[in-house]
């Protein structure tokens, strides 16, 4: 029997690895050991409990006001002990988090093969997103196998001289999740409140946006609500106190804006499905909304998910107040333009990525 270790540190990692965990645990010749680093302990715990993922190992490294340096060092040290003790045949990491980077680096030091899930995403702007773009590029340098969600991601890896026989195009596992989580009959008190309006769903959390850029975004949202009487905003707010302080200062007294606590993934997917439009700086939301055919305005200067932009489901608008305001109004006031963006697409996956990756891993380890 071959041993695979999988490391999770954040909410998105747990969501996107869940289909793969389920698929790998069906493989009789693979022993899967799941380690939760607890990089974002509260939000990670929410997903683990919701999906009934029971980590074999929990590190709980999160500290109050933690810095990137502290997270990286703590994970590196703890991963070193675990990997030395267990000596797995392979380690799986996901995406571009500090957990993925630090664990990948320790695997590189110990010569342990790395399987990188959601490989090949690029903005080619090293500080956007920060530090994720750096993390994913380093992981591509040191990974053995690369599970790219799209052909565009594969092409990015090929341009970086990654061997084509080490790249597998699998789709994104988040589509596996959203296909099961959105249901026809769903109700929530906040959706009832927004039922008589065009509901804008907002998410904001990018580290590089915190400060001036995020203030500009919030001012644009405030201006839109002031001018459009039939618009209501639901904003599930991130736990970061800097974001909360800024959001409540600018948006907190607006009657048609509800700032609410973070939703679990099933709740959030159903909110997305019932929204009129989504304003976000998230990466994963771009994939999920594209599958649902929900227009998305991406509040970033660059995106690593250009497929949805080419499909005209996503629109990259930056962080300038006037530009965001103008773009939102143009879509709200032009139904034909809006309908053109309501275009469900499977460009990010078909809902079978977890099983597909598990089968590939089983084949690799059986050689």
Which radius of gyration do the C-alpha atoms yield? 20 Å
- The fraction of residues in strands falls at 15-25%
Order of helices and strands: EHEHEHEHEHEHEHHEHEHEHEHEHEHHH
Query: What is the overall shape?
Result: globular
Task: Explain how this protein is built.
The protein is α/β, with parallel strands linked by helices and 367 residues long. It has 16 helices and 13 strands. The strands form two sheets. A seven-stranded parallel sheet has the order 3-2-1-4-5-6-7, sandwiched between helices. It has a six-stranded parallel sheet with strand order 10-9-8-11-12-13, with helices on both faces. β8, α9 and β9 form a beta-alpha-beta unit. The radius of gyration is 20 Å and the shape is globular. The mean pLDDT is 94.
Secondary-structure blueprint:
Blueprint (H helix, E strand, L loop, with lengths): L1 E7 L2 H14 L5 E7 L4 H10 L6 E2 L9 H19 L3 E5 L3 H13 L3 E4 L14 H11 L2 E4 L2 H9 L7 E3 L3 H9 L7 H6 L3 E6 L8 H16 L3 E6 L4 H11 L5 E4 L4 H9 L3 E4 L3 H9 L3 E3 L7 H5 L3 E3 L4 H12 L2 H7 L11 H14 L1
Parallel strand pairs: 1-2, 1-4, 2-3, 4-5, 5-6, 6-7, 8-9, 8-11, 9-10, 11-12, 12-13
């Amino acid at each position: 029997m071959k041993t695979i270790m999988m490391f999770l540190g954040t909410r998105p990692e747990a969501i996107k690895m869940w289909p793969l965990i389920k698929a790998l645990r069906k493989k009789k010749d693979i022993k899967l050991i799941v380690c939760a680093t607890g990089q974002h302990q509260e939000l990670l715990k929410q997903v683990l409990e919701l999906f009934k993922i029971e980590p074999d190992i929990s590190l709980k490294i999160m500290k109050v006001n933690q810095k990137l340096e502290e997270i990286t060092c703590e994970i590196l040290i703890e991963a070193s002990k675990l990997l030395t003790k267990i000596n797995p045949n392979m380690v799986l990491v996901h995406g571009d988090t500090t957990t993925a980077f630090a664990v990948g680096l320790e695997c590189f030091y110990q010569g342990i093969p790395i399987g990188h899930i959601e490989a090949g995403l690029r903005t080619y702007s090293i500080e956007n997103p920060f530090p994720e773009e750096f993390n994913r590029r380093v992981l591509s340098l040191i990974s053995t196998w690369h599970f790219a969600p799209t052909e565009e991601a594969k092409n990015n890896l090929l341009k970086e001289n990654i061997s084509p026989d080490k790249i597998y195009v699998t789709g994104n596992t988040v589509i596996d999740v959203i296909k099961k989580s959105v249901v026809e009959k769903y109700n929530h008190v906040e959706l009832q409140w927004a039922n008589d309006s065009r509901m804008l769903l907002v998410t904001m959390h990018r580290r590089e946006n915190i400060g001036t850029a995020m203030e500009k975004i919030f001012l644009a949202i405030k201006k839109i609500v002031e001018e459009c009487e039939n618009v209501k905003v639901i904003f599930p707010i991130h736990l970061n106190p800097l974001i909360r302080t800024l959001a409540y200062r600018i948006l907190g007294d607006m009657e048609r804006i509800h700032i609410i606590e973070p939703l679990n993934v099933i709740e959030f997917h159903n909110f997305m499905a019932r929204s009129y439009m989504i304003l976000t700086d998230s990466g994963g939301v771009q994939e999920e909304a594209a599958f649902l055919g929900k227009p998305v305005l991406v509040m970033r200067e660059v995106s690593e998910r250009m497929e949805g932009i080419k499909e005209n489901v996503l629109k990259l608008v930056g962080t300038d107040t006037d530009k965001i305001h103008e773009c939102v109004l143009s879509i709200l006031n032009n139904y034909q333009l809006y309908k053109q963006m309501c275009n469900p697409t499977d460009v990010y996956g078909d809902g079978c990525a977890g099983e597909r990756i598990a089968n590939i891993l089983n084949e690799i380890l059986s050689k």
